[in-house]
Specification:
- The chain has 359 residues and is α/β, with parallel strands linked by helices.
- It contains seven helices and 18 strands.
- The strands form four sheets. Strands 1, 2, 3, 4, 5, 16, 17 and 18 form an eight-stranded mixed beta sheet that branches.
- The longest helix has 21 residues.
Length: 359
């Protein structure tokens, strides 16, 4: 399609944050397709959850918060989270008639005419007065670079391509990363692999006791301060620590979660440290996290010198028409819900202050 269609708001992404924002737009009087449109590049509902590995069952998911206006009830904890949450998101889209367009790839967001933005996509262009960016991080896995990495004769893969523990049967696996994915991979792999080795840049921090509202607020504040300064956001999980549950305790007791400091280089046969220590490996599994998917916003020049987008609440400081939800402090499921509501509130105020201008 070559013509440009006009709406008041474009929502990019139909994961937790995007659907929450769309719900609040709908609830406050915006009509889908007439006033706003939701564009999603994934093949089906479920956001990043639809790509999670099958062995990540719903019962293993930490802190999945319901979307606004519709609880997720009666889910079988033994079913893969990709199935449970994919079905839930699909039902949510249908219940609230959100009319998500997919698969649609957003290629760039540029300055338009009359104070509007132009969203260029694989399905033509959209002219909009405001933008809610909810693209998450799943499509941008972070791969650290280490000397000798290209010489390794074994297999290297990232969490984003992890399909389950069975494929590592009889292999020596080095797992890199101190977050929840790294520990989950190790605990799953141990019964199958010939040997596992865990390496992290910093000693892991295990959290005892409940993670109450005050602790959560303090953790979010730390992440929020970074985005307020225009620095790339850290995940909320990176400042909360790892919950010391029964599975983690068992892993610590068995030695599966004995952690080594980060190696200094990769060799043809494995990894090695400056002190001469070596570990042979068939696989290096990088559980090293993800980075925000925001390259399509580059034409708007929103990035600060520190490398991130400076955000107040959800609003990009450099352009009040642009809101980022699921970014930085709102990159948790409950944070994404709150961010969607806050973004819509601010956008309604912005649009009320301006007379609509034809493109």
């Amino acid at each position: 399609m070559n013509h440009t269609r006009e709406v008041e708001v474009v929502v990019i992404g139909a994961g937790q944050a995007g659907l929450a924002a769309a719900h609040h737009l709908r609830r406050t009087g915006f009509e889908p397709e007439r006033d706003f449109v939701v564009l999603d590049h994934s093949p089906g509902p479920g956001g990043a959850w639809q790509f999670r590995w099958p062995s990540l069952t719903y019962g293993k998911v930490h802190g999945m918060h319901a979307l606004p206006g519709m609880e997720l009830t009666g889910a079988d904890p033994a079913r893969p989270s990709a199935e449970v949450i994919g079905e839930y998101f699909a039902a949510y889209e249908e219940t609230f008639d959100l009319r998500v367009r997919r698969p649609v790839d957003v290629r760039a967001v540029r300055e338009g005419t009359g104070g509007r933005l132009v969203v260029e996509t694989s399905d033509g262009a959209w002219s909009t007065r405001a933008l809610i960016n909810a693209t998450g991080t799943w499509d941008r896995p972070f791969w650290p670079r280490y000397p000798g990495q290209e010489t390794f004769r074994g297999r290297q893969l990232h969490t984003a391509r992890y399909a389950g523990p069975e494929e590592f049967a009889g292999q020596r696996v080095v797992v890199v990363g101190g977050g929840a994915s790294g520990t989950q991979h190790l605990l799953e792999l141990a019964p199958y692999a010939a040997a596992t080795t865990w390496v992290t840049r910093r000693p892991p921090v295990f959290r005892e006791g409940p993670f109450d509202e005050n602790a959560g607020r303090a953790a979010v504040a730390l992440v929020e301060e970074r985005v307020r300064r225009g620095l790339p956001p850290k995940s909320v999980v990176s400042v909360t620590g790892l919950p010391l549950n029964d599975a983690i305790r068992a892993g610590l007791e068995s030695g599966v979660l004995d952690r080594l400091p980060m190696f200094d280089r990769i060799t043809e046969e494995g990894v090695e440290w400056a002190d001469g220590r070596r570990v042979a490996a068939d696989v290096i599994l990088w559980a090293t996290g993800f980075r925000p998917v925001i390259d399509h916003l580059a034409p708007l020049r929103l990035r600060e010198a520190g490398g991130g987008i400076r955000v107040e609440g959800t609003r990009a400081v450099a352009d009040p028409r642009v809101h980022l939800v699921g970014y930085g402090p709102s990159a948790s499921t409950i944070g994404a819900n709150r961010a969607g509501r806050a973004a819509v509130r601010d956008i309604r105020r912005l649009l009320a202050e301006q007379e609509p201008v034809a493109a």
